[in-house]
Amino acid sequence: MRPTPAKKVGLAITLSSLVLLLTGCQSKNISGLGFDKGLSSVNNTTLPLWQGAWIAAGVVGVLTALALFYPVIFNRRKNEELPRQFRHNNKVEISLTAIAFIIVLVLFGYTARAETTITKVDTAASAPHNITVNAIQWSWQFIYADAGTGPAQTVTGTPAQPPTLVVPLGEKVLYTITSNDVDHGFWIPAFMIQIQALPHVVNHLEFSAEKLGTFPGRCNILCGRNHSQMLFSVKVVTPADYQAYLSTLKAA
Fold first, then answer.
1. 34: closest CA among 62, 53, 56, 60?
2. The pLDDT of residue 11
């Protein structure tokens, strides 16, 4: 049976939609979908994954909507005759299962590759800068190894006065993440990064900030009564200003 003009129009619209979506996949100007581009070395790895996941979800959503509305529009009942009935269709069911499996497999592969890149760290001896992040109920301690030893190198915040984590622009920092009491989460939303801060467990994270400015950070694991006040700021400064900041810590 030859397709009707209406069906041809529907097929053309479907193909046009897919072409637009696939073109958007290759565009470097695609939206950050809620995140700014190039704020940190983590963004450069995570943002394409975030965008790709939304594009894949959009393609699946469009195809699913077309599959639902196509029979509603083009296969409406024209008389009282009961249409041919099907109990199942093995080919369709196997195809849909295979497509879903391929989508999950591809997303898993890209996620594993991005995670491997993000979690790769240097040793403390070879890292350009070392900062220890200690989570406490309900604030943060930042210990700058570059400032030497002693209490002057430690910046401790409180819920009333959240601390500021000062980092150099464009230079990698190795963060050693610990907790003094319960489970916490070290989270910098703008940098698209978070890692757990756990008691008796040492986690590591290494990345560079790529844009000057001040960015909010917080704990994203419910850790007690004042969890909502467990805030901090990340201030990205020039390398020269970072050295000047370390000098003030040493002087103190």
1. 53
2. 52
